[in-house]
Amino acid sequence: MGLVIICGGFFGDEGKGKIAGYLALRDKPEIAVRTGSVNAGHTAVYNNKRFKFRLLPVAALNNYSRLLLPAGCLIRLDVLFKELELTNSKDRLGIDRQAGVIESRHVEMEKRDAIMKGIGSTMQGVGAAMADRVMRRLRIARDVSELKPFITDVAIEVNEALNKGLNVMIEGTQGLFLSLYHGTYPFVTSRDTSASAILSEVGIGPKKVDEIILVLKSYVTRVGSGPLPDELSEEEANRRGLVEIATVTGRRRRIALFNIELAKRAVIINSATQVAITKLDILFREAAGKKHWSDLPLEARKWIEDLEDELGVPITLIGTGEDVYDTIDLRHDKLGP
Ligand code: IMP
Ligand code: MG
Questions:
Q1: Is 13 a catalytic residue?
Q2: Which of 89, 164, 175, 331 has CB 3.0 to 4.6 Å from 10, enough for a Cys bridge?
Q3: Maximum pairwise Cα distance, the chain
Q4: Which pLDDT tens digit goes with each residue over 184-225?
Q5: Separation between Cα atoms, residue 4 and residue 195, nearest integer Å
Q6: CA geometry: angle 65, 66, 71, nearest 5 deg
Q7: Can 42 be counted among the known catalytic residues?
Q8: What contacts 175, CB < 8 A, 6 or more positions away?
Q9: Going from the N-terminus, what domains does the chain have, and what CATH number goes with each?
Q10: So what's the pLDDT on residue 1?
Q11: Ligand 1: centre distance to CA 224 (Å)
């Protein structure tokens, strides 16, 4: 495994949480890092329970991995302590001393801001805290007494682990087209969401990376405002059974069919080495719950094969249901042992 990055190729909500959950349970990396902040919700269904993470790595589910929040992330104390309690994972957590801390005034600032309203921000205070960080007035983790027990140097921990040959999984948040630099500006989030930015948030150089798994859903969704090519009307989305509710805000997600142009661009900009396709069962109902390639309906297999040809990157993981183990894992077949 070495160093694996999970990143999103559309507008967030591609199913990174499900893929991260599968890899956390299947591969048991020694270290799992979660970048980004509380505006991004990662959902994993495991043992008939639905876990929604806004700060902790989804690997909090596995009772094994060391859990790290890096210098580039932004923490909200209430969210953090709730998730720690829910997963009983306090003894495994490390927080970089330079991680940022969101305060209630950041949420208030966003609620008063017309631009944030206009772009359909999740209003979690993330952008306002980021602005404060740029102005050098954000509180950081080392100065917050509640975080003292967890303080560490994440960049050094991760680099040393990699030098020892341990496995590290980094969970990116959101998707390429919400990137502050590469997305549909100004309808974007407050950070770059590409694989390079994920590395930078943690403090790892690009030559340390082994695999970059780009997660794409079998259709496209977007919450908030901004362009969405070939958006379906609500009626059409209903008719096709494509209805989703956002994890953090509870808003209905806007829906479009799979977009090959966006997918190709996301492969390029993230230098993806593997692609994970989620929710194949929504596109092909008979794919539901399948765990082997040979059990997939023919038309679903053809869809995946054609897509793989177009993207020029192996499709190694396929999601066929909500549970983290509703996954077809082709890594061994396509990449070798
Ligand atoms: P903000 O980052 O909360 O200010 O939101 C800015 C834009 O990014 C809005 O359109 C949000 O809906 C969108 N956004 C931010 N985080 C996520 C996410 O994790 N999933 C999907 N959309 C997101
Ligand atoms: Mg989400």
A1: yes
A2: 175
A3: 57
A4: 999 999 999 999 999 999 999 999 999 999 999 999 999 999
A5: 10
A6: 135
A7: yes
A8: 7, 8, 9, 10, 11, 12, 13, 14, 193, 266
A9: 3-329 (3.40.440.10)
A10: 79
A11: 7
